[in-house]
# Entry
Amino acid sequence: MKKWLLYIILLPLWGFSQSGADELVNVRELIPDIVLDLRYNTTNNFIGEKLYSTDECFLSHIVVERLILVQDSLRNIRLHDNIAYPQGLGLKIWDGYRPRAVQYLMWDILPDPRFVANPEFGSSHNRGAAVDVTLVDNATGEELPMPTDFDDFSDQAGHNYTNLPANIIANRLLLRNLMVDVGGFSLLNTEWWHYSYGPARVYPLLDFQMK
Ligand SMILES: [Zn+2]
# Structure
């Protein structure tokens, strides 16, 4: 039997006993206007397989509290880089909490630490401490142009990559400034979309299943 299949069959229902800041919460319940596009619930991801069975996004409570601050700031932006946004901007989430079993599944398919965190040590996503985000125009729901698509592992996805049109750099910088300065998140130099919240990175690895 494949290792990952065994993990899925033997999944214990952990996570329910948590409480407080590290409790996993449904993001949409606390930020109703957030846009969700969980790419691992589709085949449109770097693995090319559907790994989730839900479009609900979970994150630790303390992380959602930080996202609320970022979303509130974005909602009030009416002008950015000389473009008017009559209904403001917002966040779109591509990934949040990720069950550890899915981390094993990813590792089974692509056991390369450059692209997938080794499940033995886990990812901040397995702790509900990391979120993958981009920006949308609230009036249209359209994504703002960014350097790459989600999970593009080229140099172009890095924060220091500058061979880009000025508007794309401005958009990447707006997201970064709000997530870091308003949200208190830490960035990942190689992935412009990935942000983690330091105090939550010590939380236990989880296998709570998203239903
Ligand atoms: Zn990420």
User: Anything to note?
Assistant: Residues 95, 125, 130, 132, 194 surround zinc ion (CB under 6 Å).
